[in-house]
Automatic annotation (TrEMBL):
This is Glycosyl transferase. Residues 343-455 form the Glycosyltransferase 2-like domain. Pfam families: Glyco_trans_1_4 (PF13692), Glycos_transf_2 (PF00535). One of its GO terms (molecular function) is transferase activity. PANTHER family: RHAMNOSYLTRANSFERASE WBBL (PTHR43179). Keywords: Transferase. Coiled coil: none annotated. It comes from Acetobacter orientalis.
Length: 976
């Protein structure tokens, strides 16, 4: 395939034009002389060979290439690019190889090669440039043509190449080339560029080619300094060279994660605007950030009002019900039963199509046995003949419109099931709603009623449980908020839930005689019923897993009597004055306390690096156990708060944690100050996981002492890192710059934020005390022993379990060492076919199978249930060569009945006896490690002894009762 454009050749004509002054000085003229001059002198002067490659920029962007040139490996950046760099490096400041291959082509280098292209740049110059594809985020050909509609270019070569030809022309240097860079603003704000504009091909060239990118912002909507300080993960990536600047990360990734680009630019809030959502979804703007820039953060709301939108949504739903009606009438709906699981009460006054749709939703939602009791409240439409279309229903007919309350009470006399569900006829049940509600009664014996998360027709919340105030007023918690916010997605005991979906224990319901008829015909009846349940010492539970789409007022309309509501409000206050007196005063700051009726042992704000999913390992499993114990064993209200904001809500955000834990998946360190300010005096304990977070949180905690009130701050060190660092340096043959004592002082320099401290071992606790820290508790790991697991003869192979988060991971280092140094020795002495299986979370950016390429190694990765691996392998290995704290994996393996060979530094940490509880190998000694594995693998007597004693250790040292009591004593500590 012949290519029209070739970035790898020297362009004599372009070179003569671009460097004519230098060539004139050296009296170079002929083409051959020009090329010869470039080879011998021009390359050393950092000249570019053609307009497609920018030598100076390349060397600035990739400083490692300069080192290679200095060492004589390459003559120029261009030579490096031709030979090696073209695979992943970018050749010009207006082309991004990674961006083009990832977003435009979605192709690998191998795929390109199969089609005759050397790299993404090759493809772009010869194909992509002709179709207005973007070579990078800073140059958008379509955008440029809108700015310069008279720009002339050859269609065969495209806008990009034509623009390169006139790159040095002043008339284009201040033209805006994309949304992401504002040249006029930049030139105005940076005097150093304005002082020597001739040295650059415009402001964008200066921005992308200067040697100190941290000093420049691309537009008024992004702050390099703010982003760097706010997102430490990005700052680290920039330092490592993964990104040239924080802005490069933001426009490639951060903007789509709704990270905050500047102090006053809050994309996560901005995207909640329906107009913004719709316009971005319609691709009128490529991203929320671009929309923000285009409108200066101000959205001109036009079109329908919210009321009109909701009215239209309801009308559309009613139209869909009518469209569905013929199908349902023909097919019929079957509610025949023998012994019902639940009894469902529905009161209907006309609106046949909507009623039949609600019944269809009910039948589809739950496949078990349902007793349907339908009250025809004086209907004049086809509801009068609903038996023709619904089989097995118990239909009660009233002579007139008796209303919801009296209809439900009449139906209650016929209920047969243990659970009664009050259900409106203007709703749709989301998947598994009834299953989840029934499961809640099984899980919580104190639950007298279960209510749903109700969504309105506009997709926003109607309520996530409801609140009763001290003045008797009521409010639906989180009305008009997004349904996925954390506050709406954890289980709570509440004052009441709406009767649109309210499942109640039938025995209780009958004992209370259903709804109080004093509230007939409507208003406050379900509020009063739920309050009576609460006074009966039973709980009304809001369960976010029960989701209902409610076409609010779908049957009765919007013209209910305000007078009747006012009358019943007075009745409610008089009948429940004792209960109401215990409620909080109506206040914005009291909402967060009033949302739950259960009095917790403690309210705990638990702060971790990331949400502590068990599969992440590396101390997160321990944090997960602590949170679970607080919620499920100690009846604490726990808010899980990550330092690093998660990238969206992952599939197991809620299922991975106790359902009564509040999981703040949409917040990070940058939101913490505002979060604390919104919850003054709410928390009793602030539990900070990991010592390094104390330094991050210190200024915030100091600023918001009033909001924290008398909250105790607990610093859970998880592990003392200084010793591990010293071990690592010694392993690498490096001399530490500081003593161990100096490193410990630095590690704990922010420890004064806390009043209590937690160490994971007695050894770490002693270290903390030597630093002068008081109130030190020891909280290790919790394990439940599995006593009945397969024996020696039914097991084979070797197991390693551990998370690998990055290339500096101790787990990865130990595995690489084991595979390289221990496996060859082990193969010689074990003389048996075996596999080493590696289980645990692996960062997606790490190709572990490639790093551990060996026929005996099998990289399993994350598994949902690791028990089968513990049950089938003969021994567990932990070849760690530098470590801190106590490795959770040792306790877990032992609890699962799998004997362990571990480095002696780990054995010292857990305090177990070599040859009795564990087999200890000399750290970093391949021969000894291989010999220890052979001994345990082959010697059944040793295997059974180690397994038996390790299980005893777990029973004594890691038992749940002791673990829970330790957490209880930490939480009950009072700040002086």
């Amino acid at each position: 395939m012949s290519l029209k454009i070739d970035w790898s050749v020297f362009d004599s004509e372009w070179y003569k034009k671009t460097y004519h002054s230098v060539l004139s000085f050296f009296e170079v003229d002929a083409d051959s002389d020009v090329h010869n001059f470039y080879e011998h002198y021009g390359a050393a002067l950092q000249h570019s060979p053609n307009m497609f490659f920018d030598e100076e920029w390349y060397l600035t962007r990739y400083p490692a290439v300069q080192t290679l040139i200095a060492s004589g490996d390459y003559k120029s950046g261009f030579e490096h690019y031709k030979n090696l760099g073209f695979e992943s490096y970018s050749p010009h400041w207006l082309f991004d190889e990674d961006y083009y291959k990832r977003t435009v082509l979605d192709a690998s280098s191998a795929m390109l090669a199969q089609n005759g292209f050397r790299n993404g740049y090759d493809h772009y110059l010869n194909q992509g440039a002709r179709s207005l594809s973007q070579p990078c985020l800073f140059f958008d050909p379509a955008f440029f043509l809108k700015e310069e509609p008279e720009f002339i270019f050859d269609v065969e070569e495209g806008v990009f190449i034509a623009f390169l030809r006139c790159l040095s022309e002043p008339r284009f240097q201040h033209t805006r080339l994309s949304w992401y860079f504002d040249p006029a603003w930049y030139a105005k704000h940076y005097a150093d560029y304005a002082a020597e504009p001739a040295a650059w091909c415009g402001p964008l060239h200066h921005y992308l080619a200067n040697t100190t990118p941290e000093n420049y912002d691309p537009n008024p909507y992004f702050s390099e300094k703010f982003y760097r300080q706010t997102y430490e993960d990005v700052a680290a990536a920039v330092v490592s060279g993964a990104f040239r600047s924080c802005y490069e990360h933001f426009i490639k990734f951060g903007q789509y994660e709704f990270r905050q680009p500047a102090p006053d630019v809050k994309l996560r809030q901005y995207i909640e605007n329906p107009k913004v959502k719709s316009e971005v979804a319609a691709q009128k703007y490529p991203s929320v950030f671009v929309h923000y820039m285009a409108h200066d953060g101000m959205v001109n709301e036009t079109g329908y009002t919210e009321e009109e939108v909701e009215y239209i949504s309801k009308s559309v739903y009613q139209s869909m019900c009518r469209a569905r009606l013929p199908l349902l009438m023909r097919a019929g709906i079957d509610f025949t039963y023998t012994s019902p699981d639940i009894s469902v009460i529905i009161v209907s006054h006309n609106n046949f199509a909507m009623t039949l749709s609600a019944l269809f939703s009910l039948r589809e939602n739950y496949k078990g046995s349902i007793q349907l009791i339908l009250v025809d409240s004086g209907s004049s439409d086809e509801v009068r003949h609903i038996e023709r279309y619904v089989q097995g229903a118990h239909v009660i007919r009233a002579l007139g419109n008796i209303g919801f309350l009296l209809g439900c009470n009449e139906a209650l006399r016929h209920v047969k099931a243990d659970f009664t569900l009050y259900l409106n006829n203007d709703l749709e049940l989301m998947p598994h709603a009834i299953d989840r509600a029934l499961a809640r009664f099984v899980k919580e014996p104190k639950a007298g009623a279960v209510g749903a998360k109700l969504l309105r027709t506009n997709g926003l919340l109607q309520e996530a449980g409801c609140i009763v105030w001290q003045d008797g007023g009521v409010v639906g918690y989180l009305r008009d908020q997004m349904p996925d916010i954390p506050e709406a997605n954890y289980v709570r005991s509440v004052d009441f839930c709406s009767g649109a979906f309210l499942m109640v224990r039938t025995a209780l319901l009958k004992e209370l005689a259903g709804f109080d008829t004093d509230y007939a015909p409507a208003y406050f009846e379900e509020t009063d019923l739920c309050v009576r349940l609460n006074k009966y010492n039973m709980e009304v539970v809001y369960d976010p897993a029960v989701v209902v789409l409610h076409y609010e007022y779908g049957t009765s309309g919007n013209h209910e009597s305000g007078q009747m509501m006012a009358i019943n409000f007075q009745k409610f206050k008089e009948k429940n004055n004792t209960y109401i007196a215990t409620k909080l005063q109506r206040s914005e700051h009291n909402i967060v306390k009033a949302r739950s009726t259960r009095t917790p042992t403690k309210r705990v704000l638990f702060i971790e690096d990331y949400l502590p999913f068990r599969h992440l390992g590396s101390g997160f499993t321990r944090s997960h156990d602590i949170v679970t114990s607080m919620v499920e064993q100690l009846a604490c209200d726990v808010t899980l708060y990550p330092v690093f904001r998660p990238i969206g809500m992952v599939e197991d955000t809620y299922t991975a944690f106790p359902d009564r834990a509040e999981v703040m998946w949409n917040k990070g360190l940058e939101d913490l100050a505002a979060f604390l300010h919104s919850r003054p005096g709410y928390y009793d304990v602030v539990w900070i996981a990991r010592t390094h977070n104390a330094e991050r949180l210190k200024p915030i905690l100091a600023e918001f002492t009033a909001a924290l009130g008398r909250a105790t701050v607990v610093l859970d060190t998880e592990a003392v890192a200084a010793g591990r660092t010293m071990q690592k340096l010694a392993l690498q043959g490096e001399t530490p710059q500081h003593s161990l004592e100096e490193m410990l002082q630095k590690e704990f320099r922010a420890a004064q934020v806390a009043q209590q401290f937690i160490a994971v071992s007695a050894q770490d606790a002693q270290t903390l005390r030597t630093l002068g820290l008081e109130q030190v508790n020891i909280l290790g790991h919790q394990q439940q022993v599995r006593r009945f697991t397969p024996g020696y003869t039914n097991r084979h192979d070797i197991l390693f379990v551990g998370a690998i988060h990055d290339l500096e991971s101790p787990n990865l280092e130990s595995l690489l060492w084991f595979v390289k140094d221990v496996l060859p020795v082990l193969e010689q002495i074990l003389q048996e076919d075996f596999k080493l299986r590696v289980c645990g979370y692996i960062n997606p950016t790490i190709d572990l199978p490639e790093l551990l390429a060996h026929p005996r190694v099998e990289c399993v990765g994350r598994v949902e249930d690791i028990s089968p691996y513990y049950d089938t392998h003969r021994i567990f290995i932990a070849p760690t060569r530098f470590a801190a704290g106590i490795p959770y994996k040792l306790h877990e393996a032992a609890a699962n009945g799998l004997p362990i060979v571990a480095s002696d530094i780990l054995c010292k940490q857990v305090g177990w006896v070599n040859g009795t509880d564990i087999v200890a190998a000399k750290t970093g000694n391949p021969a000894d490690f291989a010999q220890c594995i052979k001994e345990l693998y082959k010697n059944r007597e040793l295997w059974e002894r180690v397994r038996r004693n390790a299980l005893r250790r777990i029973v004594v040292e890691n038992n749940t009762e002791k673990y829970i009591e330790t957490i209880r004593s930490i939480l009950t500590f009072s700040k002086v």
